[in-house]
């Protein structure tokens, strides 16, 4: 069982692959989609859950998603067909960092996928290339909510605190126009869902060759979260607009 399969099973009951509840996602999209007929791009879309929700809420909106997981894109196509939005959704099976498009987008999304570009600022640089005049970026990133221990840093890498994270974004030429800081409830709900969905699958499929590996992955992840980074990790999702040259 590879990492992609484990992630798919772990997100079965939490299709937004980030610590955000449904209401937070709805509010962020309300603030991020600039108009009803917007063109939306999701870099590292996975199962395209952000775009599916935006397409459902806005009947004239069109969207494109990019991801390296063929299985995730197939799932997105199935969901789009069920929701009746498949004619307004285009999916690209390729590395998001290499994606090019002939026309710009009014909203570029990359939530929980900045690792695909090598970090937050590299993600914003990629998003900027696709952004239409007056467009917005919706980006989600982790930060240290409190001083992390060495184990937490080893697990999640070197991150800034929230003020420093936002300062870096502003210095890079962006203005936050909205944001959501994930609550303790959202953070815990996401981790319990991740570990619980994976463990439940393992228990329900005890005869599967991957069952033991899935259960071990859930157990390891739960231990790392509870003993390593739970009290230090935070997550912020920002709605950004480029800083005008006259203000830079």
What are the SSEs and their pairings?
Layout: H1 3-10, H2 22-32, E1 39-43, H3 49-57, E2 62-67, H4 70-83, E3 89-93, E4 105-111, H5 120-130, E5 131-144, H6 150-156, H7 162-171, E6 174-181, H8 184-204, H9 211-229, E7 233-242
Helix pairs in contact: 1-8, 8-9
Low-confidence segments, given as residue ranges, are none
Computed CA radius of gyration, to the nearest angstrom: 18 Å
Question: What is the strand arrangement across the widest sheet?
Answer: 3-2-1-4-5-7-6
| Count of runs of 4 or more consecutive helical residues | 9
Query: What structural category characterises the helix and strand content?
Result: alpha/beta
**Could you tell me the number of beta strands?**
7
Quaternary structure: single chain
- Which band does the percent of strand residues land in? 15-25%
Please give the share of residues in helix. 40-55%
> What characterizes the major β-sheet?
7 strands, mixed
The CA-CA distance between the termini, in Å, is 49 Å
Mean pLDDT: 96
- In sequence order, what are the helices and strands, one letter per element? HHEHEHEEHEHHEHHE
Shape: globular
């Amino acid at each position: 069982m590879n990492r992609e399969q484990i992630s798919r099973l772990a997100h079965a009951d939490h299709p937004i692959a980030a610590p955000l509840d449904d209401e937070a996602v709805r509010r962020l999209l309300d603030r991020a989609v600039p108009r009803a007929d917007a063109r939306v791009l999701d870099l590292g879309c996975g199962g395209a859950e952000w775009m599916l929700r935006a397409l459902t809420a806005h009947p004239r909106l069109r969207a494109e998603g990019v991801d390296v997981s063929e299985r995730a894109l197939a799932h997105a196509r199935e969901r789009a067909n069920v929701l009746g939005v498949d004619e307004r959704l285009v999916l690209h099976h390729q590395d998001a960092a290499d994606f090019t498009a002939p026309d710009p987008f009014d909203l570029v999304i990359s939530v929980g996928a900045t690792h695909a570009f090598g970090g937050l600022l590299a993600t914003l640089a990629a998003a900027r290339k696709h952004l239409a005049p007056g467009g917005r970026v919706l980006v989600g990133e982790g930060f240290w909510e409190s001083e992390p221990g060495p184990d937490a840093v080893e697990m999640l890498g070197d991150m800034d605190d929230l003020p420093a994270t936002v300062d870096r974004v502003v210095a890079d030429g962006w203005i936050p126009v909205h944001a959501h800081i994930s609550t303790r409830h959202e953070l815990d709900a996401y981790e319990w869902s991740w570990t619980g969905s994976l463990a439940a699958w393992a228990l329900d499929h005890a005869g599967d060759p991957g069952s033991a590996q899935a259960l071990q992955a859930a157990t390891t992840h739960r231990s790392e979260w509870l003993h390593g980074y739970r009290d230090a990790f935070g997550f912020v999702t920002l709605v950004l607009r480029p800083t005008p040259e006259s203000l830079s």
